[in-house]
Amino acid sequence: MEKFQRYYLSFLMLIVYTNTIAQVNCNAVEGENCKKACELYNWASDRQGSRESQEAFDKAIGLCPDFSNSYMEKAVPYLKNGDFVTWKVLIDKAVAVDPKMHLGYRGWCKFQFLRDYNGAVQDLEALKKYYPEDLGRSLNGDYHLEVVKAMAYSALGQKEKSAAIIEKALLSKGYFKGMYDHYQLGVTYFELGRYDKASENFEKQSKEYDFAENIYFKSKVSKIRNKDYLDLKTLALRTYDEGKTMKDVYTHHFNKVYRKQIEAL
């Protein structure tokens, strides 16, 4: 329970962070036009998605094309609405101006929204140039970006590499575990046919934060080993119906499991 509270507190802190990171100290911005662009950006960020907000970002970009945040924030409503073409045009401009600030965000979005796994790997590998020790976390706070990179490698079929990246991250000094790290590692080992390692990680996940998808894979391991799996299957269904599943506001988690899959086991 304490570990879940720690994850929950971390998520709340991330919400505060993402709500305040958009605001920039315009006194630190050089150049009169860029200061004005910064002020417009701050005003528009509080009204994200509105026509007035988008027009203000356009004015900010016109005043200071090198103020990368305007491109990034203008892009966000397009991402949320599924207009990935327009989003990519804008976020690519933000990255071109300031790759250190925006590569991680673009890499995460390529993975989570576009399922562009090659693009995600490229961005997150490039980010190491700027943050060799710690890539940071995904915008929703669920994963460290090293784990995001590992999941992208897994999706590309490089599962041994994926498992090695997550194992290394978990052993790193000062690493703050994500909510689903052991689950994702367990699924990767399961797909490799390494059921002992898969089971070990599903058990670790259960002790830290359990949910229907994790229980489902535990039941799959039991079935493969010719052990009684029906109780676990029933528990997975009940947990699913209770709403204790992998959730995301805008999209679906990697290795997400649905009720029909549990029923079919």
Automatic annotation (TrEMBL):
It holds the Pfam family TPR_8. This is Tetratricopeptide repeat-containing protein. It comes from Chryseobacterium oleae. The lineage of its organism: Bacteria, Pseudomonadati, Bacteroidota, Flavobacteriia, Flavobacteriales.
